[in-house]
Amino acid sequence: MPKDRHRHCYAPGCRTGYAGVEATRKLSLFSVPKDEARKKLWEKNLHRADKPLDSKCAVCELHFEDRYILREYVHIVGGKEVRIPRGVPALASDAVPTILPNAPKYLSKAAPVGRAPRKREASTKLQGARRKKRREESPCSTTALQDELESND
């Protein structure tokens, strides 16, 4: 981690780490990945054209899904899973910032939520209900016009 790393969040509209901003809890800042492919993916998801993403930048935990933030060490001891809290949270190796709460909604990519499939009615029921009803006698029908013309003569 570079010593001269920024102590505020790189994400657009985020105020984490700036002076004068009171946080309800201390938020963790994560360094930019060294891998170029992942770094480009971060840059694409963060949508900042005004400032390039470099090794000094950091992104706060508000912009990552909870599944990407590792808050515990997990070990197997004697066949049982043991969880030990980490002093400082870490990011999973495949973590990418996808949540941008202070940006327009179309820039934020929340995790897709499964939806139950829609139930459809049988097509035979719908065909009977949706058919157009024909009028018995319309005001514009030929017989009505002929009757009116004959009465005028």
From TrEMBL:
PANTHER family listed in its UniProt record: THAP DOMAIN-CONTAINING (PTHR46600), THAP DOMAIN-CONTAINING PROTEIN 10 (PTHR46600:SF11)
Superkingdom of the source species: Eukaryota
Keywords: DNA-binding, Metal-binding, Zinc, Zinc-finger
Ranges where the THAP-type domain occurs: 1-100
Keyword ATP-binding applies: no
Region of interest: Disordered: 107-153
GO molecular function ontology, one term from the record: zinc ion binding
Species whose genome carries this gene: Amblyomma sculptum
Pfam families reported in the protein's UniProt record: THAP
Protein name, as recorded: THAP-type domain-containing protein
Cited Gene3D superfamilies: THAP domain (6.20.210.20)
